[in-house]
What we know:
Keywords: Cell projection, Cytoplasm, Cytoskeleton. By secondary structure, the protein is mainly α. The chain contains three helices and no strands. It is flat, with a radius of gyration of 27 Å. The protein starts with a helix and ends in a 28-residue tail after the last helix.
Amino acid sequence: xxxxALLNEMIKKERRYQKLYTTFIINPHKKGCFLAGKxxxxxxxxxxxxxxxxxxxxxxxxxxxxxxxxxxVTESQTIGWFSKPxxxxxxxxxxx
Length: 96
């Protein structure tokens, strides 16, 4: 009897802190498995609508760190962050 009471108390605690997620999205950080359509069909329209938030996340992932951030985030990024030359080179100059 005491075991059942402990089990019931434990289940109540788990249910109290458990969240039920009803919105699901594709993980943009993981390469997905996309299925191709049937090869013998002419109809090639896409079903469903494209989520704007997911599209923004995918495009931000594909950006380089220089496009994402204004300044280097890590110490390793400081090397080569400013890759543009400070002085424009003149091709007419004989010293070059």
